[in-house]
């Protein structure tokens, strides 16, 4: 295949599960270079589980995940490490290392994978923290900042090494509207400036339509994907009721005029 | 190794034109801003900095970080920097970084996490109760499984340890020192109290029998030998298991629940190297120290009872102790303590890493770490005592 059109991530017939419990089956989609790819679906449908298989933490029950044509789960450990090194991951709960300060959290990947001096690392850390609006919080511990700030700090860590592919698990959950909007801008800038490919798991309709140029919808009831394509095209053309419901915040659900019970 | 290049041009008066070319990516190393600041010192009349880039420029955060620093430094000197000559994308990212973000104080609770009504067949509470035999069989299988997991984990630790010795692994001395401090300082008082009391109890119990033969002086032998050979190590081990082993399990369990361990894995850092090795090393280092200290406290306990209540001669008591406790006994005690240190640390870390990803899981992991630790200590004591018997030590 021509390397310029080859998808960065290709998921082929993937089944996900925990032991015998299958969460999702038959997922197939591809993410192209420079895409901002949205993974949508209701709570508990298996989005985070999918992410774990994409970033190499949990082998899928069946199927393949290809990165630039290389099948991740068929690689040996060094091969997997080489692919993983180009990832940046923002976990749903932030996952900052609690024994390190915010600055050290961002610095650790740089210490491991670059030859920069510690002063230069401090400079890069200052840049990354400013990008997420946390300049000056280098010496705070994760326990000493708010939930939304932790999320942004872990975003700074995720982009520390200028990753090729950035995965976000519900990046805007826990952020105020202003910062959620800034995050959208940042995602666009990262894509344009650093040529990153972005995969976002989100429920945030505003950002799905604002920045997503492709998407997949995971359905909890049928345990598979029921739609894929650009979000606004899905909204206009999909005849899956559950997709439309999701994308319109359930506009066709019965409304009880604010009365409870 | 640096391949990013700077070129200074003063063709326009009072204006410094900086031309950037070459490879400015992080992987190529970062240039220092000092070169530019020294230019500003040589040309103090500079009132404006312009930037331009060459066609072949390669860049990522390396360039951005340099420019970010430069713009802030020159901002301090009130010299404006015109970024018009930079690539569009770099300009936008820089603008984003330089923009003052105000909303830092707004905080919202961290995101939710719920199962969303999809039934979880793994939840044991919903499983029908199995018949007794099946349950006991299952338990036995579980034990052998957890033994296998333990051995596997021990193997991982050994490999990481080798990598540490050969300097290939990532090791933070600060973390290590912090854990050492915790192992020592936090438990010292407890170790003193308990070993002092055990020494006293031994002296008391021994005196009842020995009085009948008028051989009270041999209390010193009993207390000395028992404490030095096993008891101080066992007592210290039990204290450490309750305090340190449990806290290891709780910490690592929390990290597992918070996906911190996942975050390490995706970065290619082995959690064993990063989290387990410093803990095991710290505990294995502190156990013998605390055990020797407990030996002394135990003997002191026996001394207090013998001299204070049984009216033995103090000097004679100490001389007797010295004669009874051979150096080989001290070694036996130290071997105990080393083995216990490994058992406690490994049990704590293993239970923590295996922890289920919720708050209840952390509680279970902690309890289980203590139970495993203490069981391990008792079994190891039996084995070592048996071996010592055979070797005649
Ligand atoms: N460690 C686990 N063991 C067993 N089952 C799990 C585990 N983690 C998640 N599950 C189950 O897998 C399903 C999918 O979970 P997942 O976390 O992927 O959902 P999600 O789509 O990310 O939801 P949310 O929007 O709330 O983040 C859920 O039904 C959950 O009960
Ligand atoms: Mg999730």
Protein model, in words:
The complex is a heterodimer of chains A (261) and B (393). Chain A has 261 residues and is α/β, with parallel strands linked by helices. Chain A has one domain (33-60, 86-248): Rossmann fold, CATH 3.40.50. Chain A contains nine helices and ten strands. In chain B, helix 6 packs parallel to helix 10 (327-353). Chain B folds into two domains: 4-109, Transcription Regulator spoIIAA (2-Layer Sandwich), CATH 3.30.750; 153-391, no CATH class. In chain B, strands 1, 2, 3, 4 and 5 form a five-stranded mixed β-sheet that branches. Chains A and B meet through helix 3, helix 4, helix 5 and helix 6 of A and helix 2, helix 3 and helix 7 of B. Adenosine-5'-triphosphate sits between chains A (18, 23, 41, 43-49, 92) and B (113-116, 118, 120, 122, 357).
**What is the tally of beta strands of chain A?**
10
Compute the number of structural domains of chain A.
1
Radius of gyration of chain B, in angstroms, nearest whole number: 32 Å
Sequence stretches where pLDDT stays below 50 over 5 or more residues of chain A: none
Gyration radius over CA of chain A: 19 Å
| CATH architectural group of chain A | 3-Layer(aba) Sandwich
Strand content of chain B: 5-15%
The class by helix and strand makeup of chain B works out as alpha/beta
Strand sequence of the main sheet of chain A, in spatial order? 6-7-8-3-9-10
Main interface pair? A-B, 74 and 57 residues
- Termini separation of chain A comes to 58 Å
Overall geometry of chain B: elongated
Quick one: biggest sheet of chain A? 6 strands, mixed
Helix content of chain B: 55-70%
Strand element count of chain B:
5
Q: What small molecules does this complex bind?
A: adenosine-5'-triphosphate, magnesium ion
Which bin fits the share of residues in helices of chain A? 25-40%
Low-confidence stretches of chain B: 101-127
Number of helices of chain A: 9
Feature tags:
heterodimer; A: 261 residues; alpha/beta; Rossmann fold; 9 helices; 10 strands; B: 393 residues; Transcription Regulator spoIIAA; 2 domains; elongated
């Amino acid at each position: 295949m021509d390397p310029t059109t080859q998808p960065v991530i290709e998921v082929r017939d993937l089944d996900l599960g925990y032991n015998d419990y299958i969460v999702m089956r038959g997922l197939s989609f591809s993410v192209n270079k420079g895409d901002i790819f949205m993974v949508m679906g209701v709570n508990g449908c298996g989005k985070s589980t999918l992410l774990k298989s994409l970033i190499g933490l949990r082998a899928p029950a069946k199927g393949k995940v290809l990165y630039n044509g290389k099948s991740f789960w068929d690689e040996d450990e060094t091969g997997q490490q080489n692919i993983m090194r180009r990832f940046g991951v923002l976990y749903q709960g932030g996952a900052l290392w609690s024994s390190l300060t915010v600055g050290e959290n961002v610095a650790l990947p740089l210490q491991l994978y670059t030859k920069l001096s510690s002063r230069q690392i401090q400079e890069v850390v200052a840049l990354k923290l400013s990008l997420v609006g946390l300049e000056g919080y280098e010496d705070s511990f994760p326990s000493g900042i708010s939930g939304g700030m932790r999320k942004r700090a872990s975003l700074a860590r995720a982009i520390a090494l200028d990753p090729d592919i950035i995965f976000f698990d519900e990046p805007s959950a826990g952020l105020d509207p202003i910062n959620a909007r800034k995050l959208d801008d940042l995602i666009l800038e990262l894509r344009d400036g650093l040529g990153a490919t972005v995969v976002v798991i989100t429920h945030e309709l505003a950002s799905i339509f604002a920045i997503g140029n492709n998407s997949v919808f995971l359905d909890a009831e049928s345990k598979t994907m029921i739609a894929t394509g650009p979000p606004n095209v899905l909204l206009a053309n999909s005849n899956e009721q559950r997709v439309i419901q999701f994308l319109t915040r359930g506009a066709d659900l019965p409304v009880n005029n604010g009365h409870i019970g | 190794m640096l391949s990013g290049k700077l070129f200074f041009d003063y063709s326009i008066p009072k204006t410094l034109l900086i031309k950037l070319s070459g490879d400015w990516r992080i992987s190529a190393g970062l240039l220092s801003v000092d070169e530019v600041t020294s230019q500003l010192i040589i040309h103090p009349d500079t009132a404006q900095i312009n930037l331009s880039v060459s066609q072949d420029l390669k860049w990522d955060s390396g360039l951005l970080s340099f420019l970010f620093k430069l713009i802030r430094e020159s901002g301090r000197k009130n010299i404006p920097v015109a970024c018009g000559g930079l690539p569009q994308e770099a300009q936008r990212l820089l603008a984003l970084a330089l923009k003052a973000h105000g909303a830092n104080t707004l905080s919202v609770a961290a995101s939710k996490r719920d199962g969303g009504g999809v039934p979880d067949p793994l939840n044991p509470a919903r499983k029908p109760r199995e018949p007794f035999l099946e349950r006991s069989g299952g338990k036995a299988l579980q034990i052998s499984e957890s033994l296998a997991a333990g051995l596997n984990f021990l193997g991982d630790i050994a490999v990481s340890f080798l990598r540490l010795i050969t300097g290939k692994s990532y090791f933070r001395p600060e973390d290590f020192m912090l854990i050492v401090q915790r192992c020592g300082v936090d438990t010292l008082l407890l170790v003193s109290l308990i070993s002092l009391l055990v020494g006293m109890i031994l002296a008391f119990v021994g005196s009842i029998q020995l009085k009948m033969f008028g051989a009270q002086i041999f209390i010193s032998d009993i207390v000395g030998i028992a404490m030095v050979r096993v008891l101080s190590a066992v007592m210290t081990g039990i204290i450490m298991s309750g305090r340190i082993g449990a806290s290891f399990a709780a910490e690592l369990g929390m990290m597992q629940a918070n996906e911190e361990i996942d975050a390490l894995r995706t970065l290619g850092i082995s959690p064993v190297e990063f989290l387990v090795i410093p803990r095991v090393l710290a505990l294995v280092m502190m156990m013998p120290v605390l055990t020797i200290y407990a030996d002394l406290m135990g003997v002191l306990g026996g001394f207090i009872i013998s001299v204070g209540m049984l009216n033995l001669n103090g000097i004679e008591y100490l001389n007797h102790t010295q004669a009874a406790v051979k150096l080989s006994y001290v070694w036996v005690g130290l071997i105990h303590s080393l083995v216990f240190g490994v058992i406690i640390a490994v049990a704590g870390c293993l239970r923590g890493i295996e922890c289920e990803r919720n708050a209840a899981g952390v509680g279970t992991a902690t309890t289980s770490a203590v139970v495993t630790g203490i069981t391990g200590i008792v079994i190891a004591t039996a084995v070592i005592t048996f071996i010592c018997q055979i070797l005649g030590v």
